[in-house]
Structure formats: structure tokens, C-alpha cells
Amino acid sequence: MYYLVLFFTLLSFIPIFIILTKRRSSNRLPPGSLGIPIIGQSLGLLRAMKANTAEKWIEDRVKKYGPVSKLTLFGAPTVLIPGQAANKFIFTSDSNTLNNQQTKPIQILLGKRNLLGLSGDDHKRIRGALMTFLKPEALKQYVGKMDGEIKEHFKMYWQGKEKVTVMPLMKTLSFNIICSLLFGLEAGARRQKFVIWFGQMMDGMWSVPVNLPLTPFNRGIRASSKIQNMVMDIIQEKRLALEKQEVSPHQDLITSLLTIRGEDGTALLSEREMVDNIMLIMTAGYDTSSILMTFMVRLLANDPVVYAAVLKEQEDISKSKASGELLTWDDLTKMKYTWRVALETLRIIPPAFGGFRRTSKDVEYGGYLIPKGWQIFWVANMTHMNESIFPEPKKFVPERFENQASVPPYCYVAFGAGPRICPGYEFARIETLVAMHHLVTRFTWKLCGKDNNFSRDLMPVPTQGLPILISQKNIS
Asked: Binding positions for heme (predicted)?
């Protein structure tokens, strides 16, 4: 019944789609076929991602049509532009040329005033506000708090176990860190409600946007509304606590945003902008960090040489600490090899396979016209796995990042690039390094699943969530 409704919903858009695409017909359009209106090549790409053959799907299109081609993805006429030049075009173009383009579910569930949906002065203003909390100088003071949260996680979910499933546990870890450092929301009934609603919202975010009862999208909308109300309540509580001087302006992200003022002394962000951008950071941090840590566990299990180097680096840091002493920013600066392992993991398995932008005007690219309002689809893996950029690209070699300046610009885009680099980069780095420190110094593990491959349900997902057998070390 659900797919029947979806079919007729998409069918109803066909006349509009035909009018829009015919109006823009031109010999200067890129080669390729738009396919069936609205649906186009969406199902083929999703099938390839599910089978983990999306790179080949892209390569086949490039062989057939060249480096610039048109198609239809997720309801909109689209131009595919993989490669280094394409990445540079995507990440350096201003809002007069390209706008961020998110899927309809993301726009509805996360709100329209978040960083991804803004451009120009609004984008600059809100990015600047978020960076007051996310820049390295500000995050230094939160390393100890994150260390305590991660220690508690391993004690509660890993200690005493013989077998665990990594991905759901890493998602739990990321969620708890988000609650603690972004909201100051401690463990309890409210956090438990939050995690249920958050899961429903995430399911809705990666669903077909059909708002009918019992659909994932409908559940996602209702869950998003509950989360927004909770975040609004927390903002009000923090504002009152700040007025009474019961909390520090730097206690968490919310208190930080509440204390930022513009040049005229008024609040730099509206309450709506606070809610939408808190939800964006919460969602982005939840997926990317948990995926990175999960696949680091997988890759370390398969590479004893790299594992031994990470272990030595982390044990040397442990030996320099007094019993029970929390990690510091200085400790993180010594984890250089571990972070190279993380960067190489993200090169091979980036959480985001690619992304979309929408043209703000008619755009010239590669000798072709991309009409105003069309989507542009860029792909990370087409440079990450290019052997002319990264020799033997399928081989796991953390040493590639020993000198990051040697990597050609706009070829490594796991965190974006240029002025559009991810503002949460440093937050993810701290979380990953602290988690891996405790994992390798407290446990040994080996993979126990029969199939250790992964698929992309938009984001990479290891088979069965990556079950492992673990043994706890004697760390007295």
C-alpha cells in the first residue's frame, strides 16, 4: 500500500517536471538522459549504494557520457560532476552561484534556519556563532568532560562483556556525548525520551517524503516536533540559569550561543536559529563520529601492523598519566598517528558518499550550461579512490597523511574543503581520539561476523552492525 501511494504521488508531479525540463531544453545541456520524470536514476543509484557498488555506477556513467552528465535524482533534474575540479567548484562557489541543497525530509525535520540551508551573510553569521563553541581554543576546556563521559560508556557497555556489536554502541556513545556537551542534558528520563525520538527522526530523515500515517516520514515529523520542543525548553532553562548566574556561559553549546551578542548588543541568533542549528549539529555529529569509530575498529582488526602502532602511541600516553587522571588537550596533540588512521579510514569509507548543491542562476561548467534551479551532485569517493591521487587506493596506508600538505587540494573532502569545511571537525577529532585511546588501552578484539563487508543505506553500515569478540586488559 505504501509503495502504491508513493507511485501515484510521484506520478502527479510528472506534468510539472516535463514543463520545467522542456523549458530548459538546450543543446548546451550536459549529455545524458533525465530518465523517467521525478524517479529518473534514483533507484539505480540507491541499489548501487546498497550493494556497495556506487563508485562503479558513477564510473560507468563517466565512461558513457564524460565527466559532466545530466540525470534525475530524488525528484529533480541533476548534473553529476565528479573529480578534483568539481570539488573545488562546489566548495569555493558562493551563494550567488550555488546554494546548499538538502533533501526535502532534511529540510522539514531539521528546520530551514540551519547552517546547511543558509547562504551569504546569514550563513557567515551563524557559522561564526557556532565556531565560538566549536573552535579548538574553546573545545580545549571540554576534553576532560568528554573523557569522563567516554570512560563511563566503556564501563557500562563494554566492561565484562565477551561480545559486543560496535555500531549501535558507538551511536550510543556519540549520542551521550552530544547530550552532555551540547545540551548539558544528564542521564535520566528526559535523555531516554530524547534517544527514542531521535531514532525516529533519523529514520524519517532517510525516507521517502510521503506524510501519511504510519510512514517513517510521518513518525519522523512528529519526533522532530517533540525534540524541538524539548530543545526550546532547555534553552529557556539555560537562559534563566544564566540570569541567576547558576551556570557558566561556557558550560555547553546552548549557554555559549545564549551569551553571544552582535555589535548592537542584541542576541546574535534568534531562538528559532538556535533550535535549528542545535538539531543540525546533533544530527551531523551523531552519524559521522559513530561511523568513523566503527570502521576504525574494523580496519584495526584487519591490520595488525597499524594496530600495533596505534597501541604503542596510546600506551605511551597512558604511562605518562597518574591513575585516574583525565586526558588533556596536550595528550591529544601526541595522538598524531591515531589521527592519521582516522583520516585514512575516512578516505576509504567517507560517511557521506557525496552531496548536493542547487544552482542560484544559470551556470557554466565544463563547457556546458547547468540551468538555474538544477541540482549538482558531487561525489567524495571519486577523488578518494583515484589511484593517480592516492596510489593503491584500496590499500589502508595511514602514512599518506603524514604530510597533509602533500595531498593535492580539493582531493580529500571527508570534512568538506575551503570555506565550507565542516565546523564540527575539531569536535569529531577530540571524540574519536579519546574513544580510541580507551578502546585500545582497555580491550583487545577480533571480528566474529561471517561477512565483514558493508553496504550504504545512504550512510555506510557494516554487516550485522560489526559484531566483535572482546577481552579486557589488566590495566591496574
From this structure: 422
